[in-house]
What does this fold into?
Amino acid sequence: MKNIILMSLCAVISPSFSFADTFDDEIGALMDANTSISSKHIKIESSEEDIAVRGGDSILSFYPTDAGNYLGRTSGFDGGTVSGTGDRNCLDGSTESYIDHPIKMEPDQILEGIRIWGSDTNPTQDLRVILYKTCLPAIDPGTPTADFFFTEDIATSGGDFSNFYLLNQAFTGLNKECKIMVRVRFGSSSSSCNGVENISLFKVRAQFSSNDLIFIDDFGPFNVNDN
Amino acid sequence: MNKSILLIITIASFTANANQSLREDAILVEDDAMKIAAGFHPEEVLYMLPDTSYKGEKRSQESLAGGTTVTQSYMGVEIRGRTSSFAYDTAFGRGGIYRTGGDSFADLNMEIPDGNEFTSVRAWGSDTNDFQDLSFFVFERCLPAFDAGPIVNTQLATITTDGLNGDFSVLLSMPSGIIISTQNCTYTTRIGSNADDDSVQLFKIRAQSESVLR
It folds into this structure.
């Protein structure tokens, strides 16, 4: 808990920060010099995708992925399905609670946001959604570096949900060096699943616009992730 | 009688085509040990190209002039075990993985644009193991466009890490003239290792191709 508070404090103080020598349970990654968190940049709206007001280029594209295509962060993930139609939950006894999948986007695109569908009737635990950019040198050897730029618990127990998160996020270092990944955690445990079979992920849909920075967001501010 | 002979010839012709690599100079691998080393069963159809044994930097395909270079990148967590017994863990939680047991092979399906020339695959990882290495194989796997038939595998490139340098970035250069045919074929990088700890890790694989001027 102290770590969470400290992380939140640092996120407010600085654009990015890092810890050493601990495997962070909130994002499922080793917190060393190669991991940073910059989620303070993110503004979150639960309203519909509001694209009509933006001037200039408004060509959108989408990258949807059914939850059934996600793979465990480790092979300890024991996934199930409630409907057999592409949904995924985490079965009791699973020793892994995180699953990962890439967002495939072009180098010049802006990640406008993500919409997440799922179901949660669990009164005490939720689905956590994490986005991170992970990079390696274009040619040289090296250790992956990652910036976790979005973390959100979908706090509900009302059954089916569909939430949109406006990210408006431009990136540097894509294509040859980096990938944008989605990570989802079932429940509050970072190491196992027990009692969270009533939390399901259905689909994640990434929404892109072309990188026309003059007109983006109706001349409003946008975020550039250059970590 | 003539009809029967014609039918036999026709069937034989179809059979030969169904088992034939797309690559004219491909050599059928009949050495079972070589097949097993690449993660195949002896009865599977595997071809090799004459120059797939060279390693790494024989020619740099990453600086070609002209055309459009297309890259597709995949983190280690995106590979799938050849069988479901493949077990893996992560050292950093940043997309990389390492094998912990089970099947020694895992495959990555690469989505490369149809009609492009497939030029290279680059792989990143870490190998500090003196006894176990990480092997990479790139396969073109084809079936007839419409007819039934066996999966015909052609090994396009291979390379093995040496465990001496820690973090590695290795290049698997494709032989020239590998034009992607998504109607007939899929393209796979297979990763093989018997290491079962984080001394051998896979971080990322990147496929690279060039648009072809017509």
